[in-house]
Automatic annotation (TrEMBL):
Annotated CDD domains: Radical_SAM
Superkingdom of source: Archaea
Origin organism lineage: Archaea, Methanobacteriati, Methanobacteriota, Methanomada group, Methanobacteria
Protein name as catalogued: 7-carboxy-7-deazaguanine synthase
UniProt record similarity statement: Belongs to the radical SAM superfamily. 7-carboxy-7-deazaguanine synthase family.
Protein's job: Catalyzes the complex heterocyclic radical-mediated conversion of 6-carboxy-5,6,7,8-tetrahydropterin (CPH4) to 7-carboxy-7-deazaguanine (CDG), a step common to the biosynthetic pathways of all 7-deazapurine-containing compounds.
Residue numbers binding Mg(2+): T41
Keyword check for Metal-binding: yes
Binding annotation for substrate: F13, Q14, G15, R28, T73
Source organism (scientific name): Methanobrevibacter ruminantium (strain ATCC 35063 / DSM 1093 / JCM 13430 / OCM 146 / M1)
Encoding gene per record: queE
Length: 202
């Protein structure tokens, strides 16, 4: 029986990225292959559940709350991608599935949307995914160097789709100012603010 390490399942608002403000049910998976210094996600505990058990919990929450978006997040959910593929096959077609990933493990499933936030070897991650229509990029901005890298990638790969820029939360306002100062050099970018944190939501 296929098992999934699940940190939590909950329903809230999507607080960032292209679906910001949209009610969604979140499946947070255990484990990550990176150790980002600003990471504020507690994934220290988990339950081991079967695919059927996860499916039942998700459907119960989503039907009760009239939710049509499932966000698979972590940690790094692609660490359990083979298990997730089995789960995704069970999800009804009318439910939009979004996976939040750092993109370091190349996995592409055409039936779902990807929100990729590259953390290491950003150009390789970008190059692997940028041609797909169902992929959105979100970059965490901690310095001018991070913005320069976004400009470089957009120019080198002639990328004209929207990119989301999110200031590192502890200096969110400062980074928003920095992004604004770079408007002359940025095209098709949007500011991603972690609104769920300001609203004390999960």
């Amino acid at each position: 029986m296929i098992k999934i390490k699940v940190s939590e399942i909950f329903t809230s608002f999507q607080g960032e990225g292209p679906y910001i403000g949209t009610p969604a049910t979140f499946l947070r998976l255990y484990g990550c292959n990176l150790n980002c210094p600003w990471c504020d996600t507690d994934i220290s505990t988990y339950e081991i559940l079967s695919v059927d058990e996860v499916f039942e919990i998700l459907m119960t929450q989503m039907e009760f709350n009239n939710i049509r978006i499932l966000v698979i997040t972590g940690g790094e959910p692609t660490l359990q991608m083979e298990e997730l593929k089995r789960l995704i096959k069970e999800i009804p077609d009318e439910i939009k599935i979004q996976i939040e990933t750092n993109g370091s493990i190349f996995e592409y499933v055409p039936e779902i949307d990807y929100v990729i936030s590259p953390k290491e070897d950003k150009e390789t991650v970008f190059k692997n995914y940028y041609k797909y229509d169902n992929v959105f990029f979100k970059f965490v901005i901690c310095s001018q160097e991070d913005i320069d890298e976004v400009i470089y990638l957009k120019d080198k790969y002639n990328y004209d789709k929207t990119i989301w820029l999110q200031g590192e939360f502890s200096k969110d306002g400062e980074m928003a100012d920095l992004i604004r100062e770079n408007f002359p050099h940025l095209e098709n970018v949007k500011l991603s603010v972690q609104t769920h944190k300001y609203l004390n939501q999960r």
